[in-house]
Amino acid sequence: MTEPDWAPDDIDIDRPSASRIYDVWLGGSHNFEVDREIARQTELAWPDSIRYARANRAFLGRAVRFLAAQGIRQFLDIGSGIPTANNVHEVARRIDPDVRVVYVDIDPVAVAHSRAILRDDDRTAVLQADVRRPHDILDQVRRGALLDLDRPVALLLVALMHFIQDSDEPYESVTRLADSLPSGSYLVLTQGASGASPEADERVRELYRRTPTPLTPRNRAEIERFFTGFELVEPGLVNLPDWRPDPTVEVDDRFSGALIYAGVGRKP
User: Which domain of life is it from (predicted)?
Assistant: First the structure.
């Protein structure tokens, strides 16, 4: 396969990426055939994959609008992915044009494309970093004075933590990030819990083992543990489409059993 012009020189176009698989489901163009094949096979096991990917994106928009309405003007979006329509800075700046956003991703395609489209925006920054190394992220934010960590920040971990295995200490990573944020900050998190059946779940896990970030579903109690130190805002930790649905938007709610939990918590 010929490498497209937008691909970084050191990208492995023969290995799928969770970020680029998600891009497939959102209708993006920054993905390779190997990503599209994994997306197709995942859809066979989890028929709701595309619906949930789009519902996840819609939730992100609702959560950002909610936070901006609460006065949050700084966002740290880790696992931000490949840019598409209604990115965090675009949604938040409809409420306040001075909002600052730091995007963080480990995928080189996501980072390269984000930097390309945001190069003239002095109120956004794009970091290539790993949530499993929270001190690295925080050090880059502080050194570049990208955000003021003495003022409330929204920490966005949307569709990220199910790609962090238990052996990589996911709870410790979130705690280290949260501990660096002042009172009045928020945590926004979604995490995959289960699919249509144990057999389908195992098939999807097998597919994602081909990526650098294997899939780790968690149950509701395990997901709620990420919010330790935060007070969940209404309606709490709920199925993704049920978090403050927008009554003006028609929602495709024909989900056959796959489940992603979503929640927003405030640090007291």
Answer: Bacteria
